[in-house]
Amino acid sequence: MTESTETVTLDLTVNGRTHQVELEPRELLVDVLRERLGLTGTNLGCETTSCGACTVLVDGRSVKSCTMLAVQGQGRDVRTIEDLADGEVLHPVQAAFQRCHGLQCGFCTPGMVMASVSLIDEGRATDEQSVRAALKGNLCRCTGYQNIVAAVLSAAQEIEADR
Ligand code: FES
Ligand code: FES
């Protein structure tokens, strides 16, 4: 990272590709993803750490990207919803959300899916209670959560069976 008086030039690796971005140190990761890199799959809701719409993976762990400065992404591996599907083939978590009707308006869905991917990878999607507890930082105003929990458990089973 090279510094000038007001901006820094950052090498930011997102979805396996490194981008050189000139930005102010105060800029949030979510804004850089959406506005500089055009990755608008990551939604911006509350901007105050409450809703989870902005959840991405950083080094494989779910992070609310409105809580992280973009400069903190230097040297880390950032992954967004755009990187999950393999062409036309949905990631198992995306497919489970579709199969189980785990979305309605879809605003919370990218964040919900990314948080679920991390949850499943960490082996913590073991039962309904664990999933509900782990996703309590991701809010959904439409679904009532039942189908989201069902989708996460279904995807966890499928992913575990493939391991
Ligand atoms: S926009 Fe980041 S938690 Fe709501
Ligand atoms: S599907 Fe609308 S907010 Fe969750």
UniProtKB/TrEMBL annotation:
Alphabetical keyword list: 2Fe-2S, Iron, Iron-sulfur, Metal-binding, Oxidoreductase
GO molecular function: 2 iron, 2 sulfur cluster binding; anaerobic carbon-monoxide dehydrogenase activity; metal ion binding
Record's keyword annotation contains Iron: yes
E.C. no: 1.2.7.4
InterPro entries listed in its UniProt record: 2Fe-2S-bd (IPR002888), 2Fe-2S-bd_dom_sf (IPR036884), 2Fe-2S_ferredoxin-like_sf (IPR036010), 2Fe-2S_ferredoxin-type (IPR001041), Beta-grasp_dom_sf (IPR012675), Diverse_Oxidoreductases (IPR051452)
Pathway(s) the chain acts in: Alkaloid degradation; nicotine degradation
Superkingdom, natural source: Bacteria
Oxidoreductase in keyword set: yes
Residue span(s) of domain 2Fe-2S ferredoxin-type: 8-84
Protein name per the record: Carbon monoxide dehydrogenase small chain
Organism taxonomic ancestry: Bacteria, Bacillati, Actinomycetota, Actinomycetes, Pseudonocardiales
